[in-house]
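On clarity, I found the account of how folds are encoded harder to follow than it need be. What matters is that the chain and its backbone geometry are given together, residue for residue. I therefore recommend that a typical entry be quoted early in the introduction. An entry of this sort, consisting of the sequence and the corresponding backbone structure tokens, reads as follows:
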Amino acid sequence: MTKIERLIGVNLRLISWIREHAKSQHTHTLVGLEDELLELLGSRGKTEMPKDFKLNDKMRDFAKAGGLDPELTMGHFKDYWLARGGQFKDWERAFRNWCRNAKTYKENRRA
């Protein structure tokens, strides 16, 4: 997912949030909602896993370089974070971190 796609996603969620709260407050303005809006904007840009999140060549190569099966590792990664409802700023970076941890865990189990 590109930076532009993430920004579009954030903006769409923000618009949806504004509409929802404007209706629930019976007003079409943001008066009184500034704190909630600032809290939403301050979520540090973390998002849930995109529905179309999948291995790309870079991620596949990274996993292979660590001695991991890319498809199996992605399956574990997705199952874990979808079950937990985790959020990250950068899902590709989170996958690379998962690979590093998986490699370390694998090495420690052999010792």
